Amino acid sequence: MLAFSIVTYIIIAIVVIALIFGAILGYSSVKLKVEEDPIVEKIDAILPQSQCGQCGYPGCKPYAEAIANGDVITKCVPGGQPLVVKIADLLGVDVPTMDGVEEPETKVAFIHEDLCIGCTKCIQACPVDAIVGSNKAMHTIIADFCTGCELCVAPCPTNCIEMIKPKKTARQWNWQFDPNLVIPIVNTTEIQQKKVIGGGADE
Questions:
Q1: Which CATH number do you get for residue 75?
Q2: For the chain, what is the mean pLDDT?
Q3: How many CA atoms lie within 13 A of 86 on its CB side?
Q4: CB atoms within 10 A of CB 79
Q5: How far apart are the C-alpha atoms of 168 and 173, rounded to whole Å?
Q6: Residues marked as binding?
Q7: Which residues are annotated as a binding site for [4Fe-4S] cluster?
Q8: Where does [4Fe-4S] cluster 3 bind (predicted)?
Q9: Total domain count for the chain?
């Protein structure tokens, strides 16, 4: 009976100590919390999150922090010039000129399926889940998801992955209306045919 009482007191003491330390840690986490720089979060939100390291940093968040501390905004290869424009607009600075700097060419990964052995190493390396496949089965790339980070190229044991220029699709086509376009319009209720030239009508 005495031994049971001692064990009970020990358990109660451990619980009390745990509660005290938990309260101290909880208070410290709130009181000593380091506030994130909101501009870093905003920059990180528009980066492609490919974590490819082509900017010279281990991921998008460290690059966002570097930009907030004054680093250049032209280092993200997957984002390209459109991303540079977005970051410049966010920071309220002029878009840097690309004089003397070759603008990175947009490319996506392509798998030569006859060489693919289904090792899944490229799938494990892809940070944006742009590769579809399974073990010992042929893999393929979802071009719309691929950011061109090239992280899947090196792990491939058969060198079946190549970076190529993406093909033009209806989604990428420039559908802007040509103001000089002549569109004939036939009205079955009228004898004369009308033509729309630009924004006006010509009878």
A1: 1.10.15.40
A2: 79
A3: 14
A4: 23
A5: 7
A6: 52, 55, 60, 76, 116, 119, 122, 126, 146, 149, 152, 156
A7: 52, 55, 60, 76, 116, 119, 122, 126, 146, 149, 152, 156
A8: 126, 146, 149, 152
A9: 2
